[in-house]
Amino acid sequence: xxxxxxxxxxxxxxxxxxxxxxxxxxxxxxxxxxxxxxxxxxxxxxxxxxxxxxxxxxxxxxxxxxxxxxxxxxxxxxxxxxxxxxxxxxxxxxxxxxxxxxxxxxxxxxxxxxxxxxxxxxxxxxxxxxxxxxxxxxxxxxxxxxxxxxxxxxxxxxxxxxxxxxxxxxxxxxxxxxxxxxxxxxxxxxxxxxxxxxxxxxxxxxxxxxxxxxxxxxxxxxxxxxxxxxxxxxxxxxxxxxxxxxxxxxxxxxxxxxxxxxxxxxxxxxxxxxxxxxxxxxxxxxxxxxxxxxxxxxxxxxxxxxxxxxxxxxxxxxxxxxxxxxxxxxxxxxxxxxxxxxxxxxxxxxxxxxxxxxxxxxxxxxxxxxxxxxxxxxxxxxxxxxxxxxxxxxxxxxxxxxxxxxxxxxxx
Length: 412
Known about the structure:
This protein is α/β, with parallel strands linked by helices. 45% of the residues lie in helices and 14% in strands. It has helices spanning 6-14, 23-32, 53-64, 95-109, 125-128, 133-140, 146-149, 153-160, 167-187, 199-213, 250-258, 265-272, 277-284, 291-307, 309-324, 339-343, 349-356, 362-370, and strands spanning 19-20, 36-41, 68-73, 120-123, 189-195, 218-222, 235-236, 239-240, 334-337, 374-376, 379-380, 396-401, 405-411. The termini are far apart.
């Protein structure tokens, strides 16, 4: 289907659309007038991670084409916990923990949507905290049946695996549907977007609006983005790829994208950058060694969006110095230790890597040494006694763990 709406055309060409409700009618409306649309964000942590990028980019494109983007912070629903796509009940956070998370996450949205113009950040605690439960059940409880809830994949998969699912979590679905109803009534919001795991919740909200507000409402979900091995995009052995720089450095963030699998480059360029589609098409044709240039562009563009141009420039420069020019860049992670301890083997390669926080345990470091996973000054480290004494006359040495982690040990 060819869309008349610039927004729908853009997100279709980039691969954002997985499921939709009456998208032909939505296209007709959006081609004639500006609308308001929203996405809800989980705030169980003090930062969003790379898994949220697809939703942030959807809000960006909605805002870019002159529609109103609403980032809905789940201050109220996070007090309950979203069962969608989860194997177990989430830890319940306190109100203070949630408020702290909100303050940190709010800073991220300004990089994707223009909050000085039309875009909004709203917290659903503002209305959910004032609900009269009896009145809520009388008006909305009969509009969604348990029969239908049990058909949603997010619920069905939990029950099939005999995972516990509480009444608290069933209420989450009612509350999220109510969020859409509330935004429609008070902000004239007609579109909810989200990940494919939110499909059931979105449909429930559309039903609320049609049955109670007597208005049209629409939903769009994006595909679940996974790595070629089936693992979640944005997850590594060391944890999540966080969007806030306090959680992960811009260099490490840059390197995550620089090191994605070749097969993922084209899709990620479409989803996570603002590059024109014709430019992405050219980059997607690159093969073998040339694809590394496309990966650099991907890493730079994503880092620029999430962290800003200054951080992207710095990360690119450090990466180029370190991996291409073999320059020891002073901005790399670094530690210092005295020469005497190193000479006497009282400070070993284990201590250095532990202090640099490049491994989860000393036994992991030993395994990496055996599998040729550690280099010191660009040469494989093979010392059975784990010493660094042969480097004690250097002012600084470069330690590399795998292909991604490089730091400096300064000898004082």
